[in-house]
UniProtKB/TrEMBL annotation:
Pfam families reported in the protein's UniProt record: Ldh_2
The protein, known as: Malate/lactate/ureidoglycolate dehydrogenase, LDH2 family
Taxonomic lineage: Bacteria, Pseudomonadati, Pseudomonadota, Alphaproteobacteria, Rhodobacterales
Molecular function, one GO term: oxidoreductase activity
Keyword annotations of the record: Oxidoreductase
InterPro entries for the chain: Mal/L-sulf/L-lact_DH-like_ah, Mal/L-sulf/L-lact_DH-like_NADP, Mal/L-sulfo/L-lacto_DH-like_sf, Malate/L-lactate_DH-like
Similarity-based family: Belongs to the LDH2/MDH2 oxidoreductase family.
Length: 343
């Protein structure tokens, strides 16, 4: 059986059809499809079409408002508020991002608060949407309890991703996006599917013992990266993107779902900064000074984050996205059967 090559646009359209077949409105399905196709385009398999099944299970369980229309709240200074009304975060971000960029340019910095959303995606697509406006940006959100704090042995915090981006002229932005756990839960699931052991230090089992068994890890708890440092950052995200914005923290999100087979509902916080406004009146150009730093990093032979992802994107946009025969067959099944294709 041979691989199939699809264009980015064709894959996006196909994924959107799958979600519309499952009852999701075009507004919601198109936004989700753009994010999933971006994952495949950039060779981020853990956030590509692999995520479709989890989205469909969550829809089937009635945990997503199929026809949700995000709502932008009246202007509130530097805080942009979008109510997702139970829909996916993607459409809510697409509504709020232009207003966030406008206010960050006007005020020097601004924050986008998304409430009551279902979240499954990587954060770098959102970061890149803001660096495209010559803004620096941060994004963060809780998840559901799957990570034990350093020194603990029971899942309490989420994988709690954090992303940052810095705009660059005539080249790809500087972007990083990582879970505050040693690995994303999706990475452990991919190990489980492949039947391969986890690296040491990724997880503990249900009794709090270190494990390399993906199944035991999924039934136990993941560990934060960097020991107490990652644990502290994860806690910060619980506070800023959960407590501070009046939305669910990771424990509350898991309590609402009852299991890990569905996607969590919570909120998200995105911050945007205008480097030109912050450096105004100071000697030198912020963009040029940043390039001096990047040159110093790469001059030592180090690689800037996301460079492999950007290289994969260029290949995919020029030559298409390659999917295996098994992946195509799975897409066929999802498009044909809709929600009946998932348990």
């Amino acid at each position: 059986m041979t691989d199939t090559i699809l264009s980015h646009d064709d894959l996006t359209a196909r994924v959107s059809r799958i979600f519309q077949r499952a009852g999701l409105s075009p507004l919601q399905s198109d936004a989700v499809a753009r994010t999933i196709a971006a994952g495949e385009r950039d060779a981020c398999k853990s956030h590509g079409i692999y995520r479709i099944d989890g989205c469909l299970r969550t829809i089937k369980a009635g945990m997503v408002t199929l026809d949700a229309v995000p709502e932008l709240a009246p202007e509130d200074g530097a805080i942009v508020r979008v109510a997702a009304h139970g829909g996916f975060s993607n459409a809510a971000f697409e509504l709020g991002a232009p207003e966030l960029a406008r206010r960050a340019k006007e005020l020097g910095m601004a924050a986008l608060v998304i409430n009551d959303c279902t979240h499954f995606a990587a954060l770098w697509p959102e970061i890149e949407a803001l660096t495209a406006h010559d803004l620096a940006a941060m994004a963060m959100c809780p998840s559901y309890s799957s990570v034990a704090p350093t020194g603990g042995n029971e899942a309490l915090m989420g994988t709690n991703p954090f992303a940052f981006g810095w705009p660059r002229e005539n080249t790809d932005p500087y972007v990083f996006d990582f879970a505050t756990s040693v690995a994303a839960r999706g990475e452990i699931e991919l190990h489980r599917r492949a039947g391969t052991p986890l690296p040491e230090g990724w997880a503990v089992d249900a009794d709090g013992n270190p494990t390399s068994d993906p199944e035991a890890a999924l039934n136990g708890a993941m560990l934060p990266f960097g020991g107490h440092k990652g644990s502290a950052i994860a806690t910060m995200i619980e506070l800023l993107a959960g407590v501070m914005i009046g939305d669910l923290n990771s424990r509350e999100a898991l309590d609402r779902l009852g299991n890990f087979t569905l996607l969590p509902a919570h909120g998200e916080l995105i911050l945007a900064f205008d480097p030109a406004r912050f450096s105004a009146g100071r000697e030198g150009n912020a963009m040029a000074r940043a390039e001096t730093l990047f040159d110093a990093i790469t001059g030592q032979g180090a690689r800037l984050p996301s460079q492999r992802r950007f290289a994969a994107r260029k290949r995919a946009m020029a030559h298409g996205i390659t999917l295996s025969a098994e992946e195509i067959a799975h897409l066929d099944r999802l498009e044909e059967r809709g929600l009946d294709a998932v348990a």
